[in-house]
Amino acid sequence: MKNYDLKQEQTLVIVKPDGVQRDLVGEVIKRYEQCGLKLVGLKMVIPTKDMALKHYSIDPEWAIKSGTKTFESYKAKGLPLPGKDPVEFAEGIRRKLPDFMSSGPVVSMVWQGMGAVSIVRKITGSTEPLTSLPGTIRGDYTIDSYTAADTDSRAVRNIIHSSGSVDEANKEIAIWFDKKEILSYRLVSEEIIYDVNLDGILE
Ligand code: IDP
Ligand code: MG
Description:
The protein is an alpha+beta fold. It has helices spanning 17-21, 25-34, 49-55, 62-76, 86-101, 116-124, 137-141, 146-151, 166-176, 190-194; strands at 10-15, 38-45, 106-112, 160-162. The protein is built from 10 helices and 4 strands; from the N terminus they run E-H-H-E-H-H-H-E-H-H-H-E-H-H.
């Protein structure tokens, strides 16, 4: 595609400690790779609690959005709400996330391509595995729920983190990767996805 800058969009994916322990690293890489996105950064780290807290503090609206999503899910199931105020409830979750994220190694990745943020969110699935659609990573590979996690006062174990917006992605990538760790290179397959002319195939 001529002058098509959107193919440069990047997003952060983290295989969380539960995903590594469940032997799912290869499977999740395969899914993002096979959809046509390009892997431009990859490493295994044991996050510090500070890194995890920084990561989940990037979006000033996070507690409102996440708490509201949880409360809506309880309402949709006809369950009593887990607290009085969604923001206060989400702030409690934010305090638990560093324990979860620093409990073992994670695999952090930067994926690049047209609409990378949205494409990765689609393949990842919605936050609560109980209601994530089959065919998504969270829907296919795990069974956790808000009620199970909230009863045990812990974060939902849902295998993957993926950025929620382009702005969030850029800020998150800066936490997990140095600029020099993100590679710039061409893939042969990009010609089929983006090029205007398909004139290099036939001999
Ligand atoms: P996302 O990971 O799908 O973007 P967010 O709302 O940003 O979802 O929440 C970040 C993470 O916090 C989730 O992936 C999950 O691990 C945890 N989490 C979110 N809401 C709850 C909750 O209501 N109870 C327990 N853990 C939660
Ligand atoms: Mg999020």
